[in-house]
Amino acid sequence: MSELQPKINKPIILIFSTAYLPLTGGAELAIKYITDNLAENFDFVLFTARFSRSLSRFERIGAVEIHRIGFGLPLDKYLLPVLGYLKARRLIHNYKPTANSYRLILWGMMASYGSIAAYFLKKRSPEAKFLLTLQEGDSQEYLEKGRLGLMGFWLARLVKTADKVQTISFYLKRLAVKHGASFNETEVVPNGVDLNIFNKNVSSEELRELKIRHGITDKQKVVITASRLVYKNAVDVLIKAMNEISDAHLFIAGTGPDESKLKNLAEELKIIARIHFMGDMTHDALSKYYALAHVFARPSRSEGLGSAFLEAMGAGLPVIGTNVGGIPDFLKHNETGLFCEIDNPCDLAAKIKRLIHDEGFRKNISAEGRKLARENYSWDKITQKMSAIFFRLLRP
Fold this sequence. Notes:
By secondary structure, this protein is α/β, with parallel strands linked by helices. The chain is 42% helix and 17% strand. It contains 15 helices and 14 strands. The strands form two sheets. An eight-stranded mixed sheet has the order 3-4-2-1-5-6-7-8, sandwiched between helices. Strand 7, helix 6 and strand 8 form a beta-alpha-beta unit. Helix 1 crosses helix 15, helix 9 packs across helix 13 and helix 12 packs across helix 14.
Protein backbone atom coordinates (compact mmCIF):
# COMPACT_ATOMS: atom_id res chain seq x y z
CA MET A 1 0.00 0.00 0.00
CA SER A 2 1.17 3.53 -0.68
CA GLU A 3 0.33 5.00 2.71
CA LEU A 4 -0.60 3.72 6.12
CA GLN A 5 -4.28 3.13 6.60
CA PRO A 6 -4.74 2.25 10.25
CA LYS A 7 -7.63 -0.01 11.14
CA ILE A 8 -9.92 0.84 14.00
CA ASN A 9 -8.39 -0.28 17.29
CA LYS A 10 -5.40 -1.79 15.50
CA PRO A 11 -2.19 0.12 16.23
CA ILE A 12 0.68 0.40 13.77
CA ILE A 13 4.25 -0.55 14.61
CA LEU A 14 6.91 0.86 12.30
CA ILE A 15 9.99 -1.37 12.49
CA PHE A 16 13.42 -0.01 11.59
CA SER A 17 15.97 -2.78 11.04
CA THR A 18 19.21 -2.47 9.11
CA ALA A 19 18.69 -5.96 7.64
CA TYR A 20 15.72 -8.27 7.24
CA LEU A 21 14.69 -11.50 5.56
CA PRO A 22 15.94 -13.20 3.47
CA LEU A 23 19.05 -12.05 5.37
CA THR A 24 18.84 -13.91 8.66
CA GLY A 25 20.26 -13.47 12.12
CA GLY A 26 18.95 -13.42 15.65
CA ALA A 27 17.36 -9.98 15.26
CA GLU A 28 15.67 -10.82 11.96
CA LEU A 29 14.26 -14.08 13.32
CA ALA A 30 13.00 -12.31 16.43
CA ILE A 31 11.07 -9.83 14.28
CA LYS A 32 9.61 -12.68 12.20
CA TYR A 33 8.38 -14.75 15.16
CA ILE A 34 7.05 -11.78 17.12
CA THR A 35 5.18 -10.22 14.20
CA ASP A 36 3.69 -13.54 13.06
CA ASN A 37 2.33 -14.19 16.55
CA LEU A 38 0.96 -10.67 17.04
CA ALA A 39 -0.54 -10.04 13.60
CA GLU A 40 -4.09 -9.97 14.96
CA ASN A 41 -3.29 -7.12 17.33
CA PHE A 42 -0.98 -4.86 15.30
CA ASP A 43 -0.13 -3.78 11.76
CA PHE A 44 3.62 -4.03 11.05
CA VAL A 45 5.53 -1.95 8.50
CA LEU A 46 9.29 -2.45 8.25
CA PHE A 47 12.02 -0.24 6.77
CA THR A 48 15.35 -1.83 5.92
CA ALA A 49 18.34 -1.49 3.60
CA ARG A 50 17.89 -3.12 0.22
CA PHE A 51 21.50 -4.41 -0.09
CA SER A 52 20.91 -6.32 -3.37
CA ARG A 53 19.10 -5.57 -6.62
CA SER A 54 17.64 -9.07 -6.47
CA LEU A 55 15.53 -7.95 -3.51
CA SER A 56 12.22 -6.18 -4.15
CA ARG A 57 11.79 -2.60 -3.03
CA PHE A 58 8.43 -3.55 -1.58
CA GLU A 59 6.90 -6.88 -0.54
CA ARG A 60 5.04 -8.59 2.27
CA ILE A 61 6.55 -11.45 4.23
CA GLY A 62 4.17 -12.94 6.75
CA ALA A 63 2.61 -10.17 8.82
CA VAL A 64 5.14 -7.52 7.77
CA GLU A 65 4.92 -4.98 4.97
CA ILE A 66 8.52 -4.39 3.91
CA HIS A 67 10.01 -1.25 2.35
CA ARG A 68 13.61 -1.72 1.24
CA ILE A 69 15.60 1.49 1.01
CA GLY A 70 18.46 2.22 -1.38
CA PHE A 71 19.83 1.14 -4.73
CA GLY A 72 20.45 -2.54 -4.12
CA LEU A 73 24.06 -2.09 -3.02
CA PRO A 74 25.96 -3.09 0.15
CA LEU A 75 26.35 0.62 0.94
CA ASP A 76 22.57 1.04 1.27
CA LYS A 77 22.78 0.71 5.05
CA TYR A 78 24.57 4.06 5.19
CA LEU A 79 21.61 5.68 3.40
CA LEU A 80 19.03 4.13 5.71
CA PRO A 81 19.15 6.74 8.52
CA VAL A 82 18.11 9.56 6.15
CA LEU A 83 16.20 7.79 3.36
CA GLY A 84 14.43 5.49 5.81
CA TYR A 85 13.36 8.48 7.88
CA LEU A 86 12.05 10.31 4.81
CA LYS A 87 10.19 7.24 3.54
CA ALA A 88 8.56 6.59 6.91
CA ARG A 89 7.66 10.27 7.30
CA ARG A 90 5.91 10.27 3.92
CA LEU A 91 3.96 7.14 4.79
CA ILE A 92 2.62 8.52 8.05
CA HIS A 93 2.10 12.09 6.81
CA ASN A 94 -1.68 11.73 6.71
CA TYR A 95 -1.89 9.63 9.86
CA LYS A 96 -3.13 11.87 12.67
CA PRO A 97 -3.42 10.99 16.34
CA THR A 98 -6.83 10.93 18.00
CA ALA A 99 -7.52 13.37 20.80
CA ASN A 100 -6.40 10.97 23.53
CA SER A 101 -4.18 8.40 21.85
CA TYR A 102 -1.35 8.22 19.36
CA ARG A 103 -1.52 4.63 18.21
CA LEU A 104 1.88 4.47 16.60
CA ILE A 105 5.07 2.81 17.82
CA LEU A 106 8.53 3.26 16.32
CA TRP A 107 10.49 0.06 16.92
CA GLY A 108 14.23 0.31 16.36
CA MET A 109 16.06 -3.00 16.10
CA MET A 110 19.57 -2.68 17.53
CA ALA A 111 21.68 0.47 17.92
CA SER A 112 22.37 0.58 14.21
CA TYR A 113 21.51 2.45 11.03
CA GLY A 114 17.82 1.54 11.05
CA SER A 115 17.30 2.77 14.58
CA ILE A 116 18.91 6.10 13.70
CA ALA A 117 16.05 6.63 11.21
CA ALA A 118 13.58 5.91 14.04
CA TYR A 119 15.49 8.38 16.23
CA PHE A 120 15.03 11.16 13.65
CA LEU A 121 11.33 10.35 13.35
CA LYS A 122 10.91 10.42 17.12
CA LYS A 123 12.54 13.85 17.23
CA ARG A 124 10.09 15.09 14.61
CA SER A 125 7.04 13.40 16.19
CA PRO A 126 7.75 13.20 19.94
CA GLU A 127 4.18 12.04 20.61
CA ALA A 128 5.01 8.72 18.89
CA LYS A 129 6.36 6.05 21.22
CA PHE A 130 9.89 4.78 20.53
CA LEU A 131 10.95 1.26 21.51
CA LEU A 132 14.62 0.36 21.11
CA THR A 133 15.69 -3.29 21.13
CA LEU A 134 19.34 -4.12 21.84
CA GLN A 135 20.56 -7.44 20.42
CA GLU A 136 24.22 -6.57 19.96
CA GLY A 137 26.74 -9.38 20.38
CA ASP A 138 29.91 -7.30 19.98
CA SER A 139 32.33 -6.62 22.81
CA GLN A 140 31.59 -3.75 25.18
CA GLU A 141 34.73 -1.95 24.01
CA TYR A 142 33.50 -2.01 20.41
CA LEU A 143 29.98 -0.93 21.33
CA GLU A 144 31.39 2.04 23.22
CA LYS A 145 34.35 3.05 21.05
CA GLY A 146 33.93 1.34 17.69
CA ARG A 147 33.85 3.16 14.35
CA LEU A 148 35.82 6.10 15.69
CA GLY A 149 33.48 6.50 18.64
CA LEU A 150 30.27 6.64 16.58
CA MET A 151 28.96 3.44 18.17
CA GLY A 152 29.03 4.94 21.64
CA PHE A 153 27.77 8.30 20.35
CA TRP A 154 24.63 6.78 18.83
CA LEU A 155 24.12 4.19 21.55
CA ALA A 156 23.86 6.97 24.14
CA ARG A 157 21.47 9.06 22.06
CA LEU A 158 19.23 6.14 21.17
CA VAL A 159 18.83 4.80 24.71
CA LYS A 160 18.20 8.28 26.12
CA THR A 161 15.60 9.10 23.46
CA ALA A 162 13.70 5.80 23.59
CA ASP A 163 10.52 5.64 25.68
CA LYS A 164 11.37 2.00 26.37
CA VAL A 165 14.51 -0.09 25.91
CA GLN A 166 14.23 -3.86 25.56
CA THR A 167 17.39 -5.93 25.76
CA ILE A 168 17.90 -9.63 25.19
CA SER A 169 20.21 -10.04 28.20
CA PHE A 170 21.07 -8.47 31.54
CA TYR A 171 24.52 -7.69 30.17
CA LEU A 172 22.94 -5.44 27.53
CA LYS A 173 20.60 -3.90 30.09
CA ARG A 174 23.59 -2.89 32.20
CA LEU A 175 25.24 -1.43 29.10
CA ALA A 176 22.09 0.55 28.19
CA VAL A 177 21.71 1.97 31.70
CA LYS A 178 25.40 2.88 31.77
CA HIS A 179 24.84 5.00 28.66
CA GLY A 180 21.79 6.81 29.98
CA ALA A 181 18.76 4.54 29.67
CA SER A 182 16.23 4.57 32.49
CA PHE A 183 16.69 1.48 34.67
CA ASN A 184 12.92 1.16 35.19
CA GLU A 185 12.18 1.61 31.49
CA THR A 186 14.73 -1.00 30.40
CA GLU A 187 13.34 -4.52 30.30
CA VAL A 188 15.04 -7.83 29.55
CA VAL A 189 13.15 -10.03 27.09
CA PRO A 190 15.42 -12.62 25.45
CA ASN A 191 15.12 -14.17 22.02
CA GLY A 192 13.24 -17.43 21.86
CA VAL A 193 13.63 -20.92 20.47
CA ASP A 194 11.33 -22.68 18.02
CA LEU A 195 10.99 -25.91 19.97
CA ASN A 196 8.78 -27.39 17.26
CA ILE A 197 11.86 -27.45 15.01
CA PHE A 198 14.65 -28.26 17.44
CA ASN A 199 12.75 -30.89 19.39
CA LYS A 200 11.95 -33.15 16.42
CA ASN A 201 12.65 -36.85 16.50
CA VAL A 202 15.22 -38.03 13.97
CA SER A 203 15.13 -41.69 12.96
CA SER A 204 18.04 -44.05 13.52
CA GLU A 205 18.14 -44.60 9.76
CA GLU A 206 18.68 -40.88 9.13
CA LEU A 207 21.43 -40.73 11.74
CA ARG A 208 23.14 -43.77 10.24
CA GLU A 209 23.01 -42.17 6.79
CA LEU A 210 24.61 -38.98 8.14
CA LYS A 211 27.42 -40.98 9.76
CA ILE A 212 28.13 -42.84 6.54
CA ARG A 213 28.02 -39.61 4.50
CA HIS A 214 30.65 -37.96 6.69
CA GLY A 215 32.83 -40.97 7.48
CA ILE A 216 32.01 -41.19 11.18
CA THR A 217 32.49 -44.52 12.89
CA ASP A 218 30.27 -45.80 15.69
CA LYS A 219 33.05 -45.18 18.22
CA GLN A 220 33.61 -41.56 17.25
CA LYS A 221 31.83 -38.63 18.90
CA VAL A 222 30.41 -35.50 17.26
CA VAL A 223 30.89 -31.89 18.36
CA ILE A 224 28.87 -29.14 16.67
CA THR A 225 28.77 -25.37 16.58
CA ALA A 226 26.43 -22.97 14.78
CA SER A 227 28.04 -19.62 14.30
CA ARG A 228 28.81 -16.79 11.98
CA LEU A 229 32.48 -17.25 11.18
CA VAL A 230 33.83 -14.06 12.71
CA TYR A 231 36.47 -13.32 15.33
CA LYS A 232 34.08 -12.80 18.24
CA ASN A 233 32.69 -16.34 17.99
CA ALA A 234 36.14 -17.91 18.43
CA VAL A 235 35.69 -20.87 16.10
CA ASP A 236 39.49 -20.88 15.78
CA VAL A 237 39.73 -21.81 19.46
CA LEU A 238 37.29 -24.68 18.90
CA ILE A 239 39.31 -26.03 15.97
CA LYS A 240 42.50 -25.90 18.06
CA ALA A 241 40.68 -27.78 20.84
CA MET A 242 39.71 -30.49 18.34
CA ASN A 243 43.41 -31.04 17.68
CA GLU A 244 43.55 -32.51 21.20
CA ILE A 245 40.51 -34.78 20.77
CA SER A 246 41.37 -37.59 18.41
CA ASP A 247 38.10 -39.52 18.63
CA ALA A 248 35.65 -36.79 17.54
CA HIS A 249 34.45 -34.90 14.47
CA LEU A 250 33.48 -31.21 14.45
CA PHE A 251 30.61 -29.82 12.37
CA ILE A 252 30.61 -26.06 11.77
CA ALA A 253 27.29 -24.59 10.60
CA GLY A 254 27.62 -21.07 9.27
CA THR A 255 29.60 -18.83 6.96
CA GLY A 256 31.51 -15.59 7.37
CA PRO A 257 34.64 -13.64 6.48
CA ASP A 258 36.92 -15.92 8.54
CA GLU A 259 35.96 -19.12 6.70
CA SER A 260 39.11 -19.41 4.58
CA LYS A 261 41.32 -18.65 7.55
CA LEU A 262 39.59 -21.34 9.62
CA LYS A 263 39.89 -23.93 6.86
CA ASN A 264 43.61 -23.13 6.57
CA LEU A 265 43.98 -23.61 10.32
CA ALA A 266 42.37 -27.06 10.13
CA GLU A 267 44.69 -27.93 7.24
CA GLU A 268 47.77 -26.76 9.16
CA LEU A 269 46.78 -28.88 12.16
CA LYS A 270 46.22 -31.85 9.81
CA ILE A 271 42.69 -32.45 11.15
CA ILE A 272 40.71 -31.20 8.17
CA ALA A 273 39.30 -34.70 7.59
CA ARG A 274 37.47 -34.41 10.93
CA ILE A 275 36.35 -30.77 10.51
CA HIS A 276 33.20 -30.36 8.42
CA PHE A 277 32.35 -26.86 7.17
CA MET A 278 28.62 -27.11 6.44
CA GLY A 279 27.88 -23.54 5.34
CA ASP A 280 24.58 -21.87 6.13
CA MET A 281 21.96 -24.42 7.13
CA THR A 282 18.20 -24.26 7.54
CA HIS A 283 16.87 -24.94 11.02
CA ASP A 284 15.34 -28.19 9.78
CA ALA A 285 18.69 -29.42 8.48
CA LEU A 286 20.53 -28.20 11.57
CA SER A 287 18.14 -30.05 13.88
CA LYS A 288 19.20 -33.36 12.31
CA TYR A 289 22.86 -32.67 12.99
CA TYR A 290 22.00 -31.69 16.55
CA ALA A 291 20.43 -35.13 16.92
CA LEU A 292 23.69 -36.65 15.62
CA ALA A 293 25.91 -34.60 17.94
CA HIS A 294 27.02 -35.20 21.53
CA VAL A 295 28.11 -31.64 22.44
CA PHE A 296 27.49 -28.06 21.28
CA ALA A 297 30.43 -25.70 21.84
CA ARG A 298 31.04 -22.02 21.10
CA PRO A 299 33.88 -20.37 23.06
CA SER A 300 32.69 -16.82 22.30
CA ARG A 301 34.88 -13.81 22.96
CA SER A 302 31.71 -11.68 23.24
CA GLU A 303 27.99 -12.44 23.06
CA GLY A 304 24.75 -10.48 23.37
CA LEU A 305 22.79 -13.58 24.34
CA GLY A 306 23.57 -16.56 22.10
CA SER A 307 20.39 -17.95 20.53
CA ALA A 308 22.32 -20.86 19.03
CA PHE A 309 23.07 -22.12 22.55
CA LEU A 310 19.38 -22.05 23.41
CA GLU A 311 18.45 -23.88 20.21
CA ALA A 312 21.00 -26.59 21.00
CA MET A 313 19.68 -26.85 24.55
CA GLY A 314 16.14 -27.15 23.23
CA ALA A 315 17.34 -30.01 21.03
CA GLY A 316 18.74 -31.80 24.07
CA LEU A 317 22.43 -31.06 23.55
CA PRO A 318 24.76 -30.15 26.43
CA VAL A 319 26.43 -26.82 25.71
CA ILE A 320 29.82 -25.28 26.43
CA GLY A 321 30.29 -21.52 26.38
CA THR A 322 32.29 -18.73 27.99
CA ASN A 323 31.29 -16.52 30.89
CA VAL A 324 30.80 -13.41 28.74
CA GLY A 325 27.95 -11.11 27.75
CA GLY A 326 24.49 -12.64 28.01
CA ILE A 327 25.57 -16.28 28.23
CA PRO A 328 25.43 -16.36 32.08
CA ASP A 329 21.70 -15.53 31.82
CA PHE A 330 21.03 -19.15 30.90
CA LEU A 331 24.25 -21.13 31.41
CA LYS A 332 24.89 -22.24 34.98
CA HIS A 333 28.16 -24.15 35.27
CA ASN A 334 27.68 -27.89 35.91
CA GLU A 335 23.89 -27.41 35.78
CA THR A 336 22.66 -26.22 32.38
CA GLY A 337 26.05 -26.35 30.67
CA LEU A 338 29.77 -25.84 31.16
CA PHE A 339 31.89 -22.72 31.09
CA CYS A 340 35.30 -22.83 29.45
CA GLU A 341 38.02 -20.21 29.65
CA ILE A 342 38.26 -17.56 26.94
CA ASP A 343 40.95 -18.22 24.31
CA ASN A 344 42.04 -21.46 25.99
CA PRO A 345 41.82 -24.46 23.60
CA CYS A 346 43.20 -26.85 26.24
CA ASP A 347 40.50 -25.98 28.74
CA LEU A 348 37.82 -26.24 26.06
CA ALA A 349 39.16 -29.64 25.00
CA ALA A 350 39.00 -30.86 28.61
CA LYS A 351 35.36 -29.76 28.92
CA ILE A 352 34.43 -31.45 25.64
CA LYS A 353 36.16 -34.68 26.71
CA ARG A 354 34.28 -34.67 30.01
CA LEU A 355 30.93 -34.45 28.26
CA ILE A 356 31.58 -36.95 25.50
CA HIS A 357 33.07 -39.58 27.82
CA ASP A 358 30.86 -39.21 30.92
CA GLU A 359 27.47 -40.29 29.63
CA GLY A 360 25.66 -39.86 32.94
CA PHE A 361 26.94 -36.33 33.39
CA ARG A 362 26.12 -35.48 29.78
CA LYS A 363 22.52 -36.69 30.19
CA ASN A 364 22.02 -34.63 33.36
CA ILE A 365 23.33 -31.46 31.71
CA SER A 366 21.18 -32.12 28.63
CA ALA A 367 18.02 -32.62 30.67
CA GLU A 368 18.50 -29.42 32.68
CA GLY A 369 19.30 -27.40 29.57
CA ARG A 370 16.27 -28.69 27.69
CA LYS A 371 14.02 -27.96 30.67
CA LEU A 372 15.31 -24.38 30.86
CA ALA A 373 14.77 -23.80 27.12
CA ARG A 374 11.18 -25.10 27.32
CA GLU A 375 10.23 -23.14 30.43
CA ASN A 376 11.86 -19.78 29.70
CA TYR A 377 12.62 -19.42 26.00
CA SER A 378 9.68 -20.59 23.89
CA TRP A 379 8.57 -18.00 21.33
CA ASP A 380 5.03 -18.12 22.72
CA LYS A 381 6.26 -16.77 26.05
CA ILE A 382 8.58 -14.25 24.43
CA THR A 383 5.83 -12.81 22.21
CA GLN A 384 3.50 -12.48 25.19
CA LYS A 385 6.11 -10.34 26.92
CA MET A 386 6.67 -8.23 23.81
CA SER A 387 2.92 -7.75 23.37
CA ALA A 388 2.71 -6.46 26.94
CA ILE A 389 5.48 -3.94 26.20
CA PHE A 390 3.70 -2.71 23.05
CA PHE A 391 0.38 -2.22 24.84
CA ARG A 392 2.00 -0.42 27.78
CA LEU A 393 3.62 2.02 25.33
CA LEU A 394 0.23 2.76 23.78
CA ARG A 395 -1.42 3.78 27.04
CA PRO A 396 -2.38 7.48 27.07
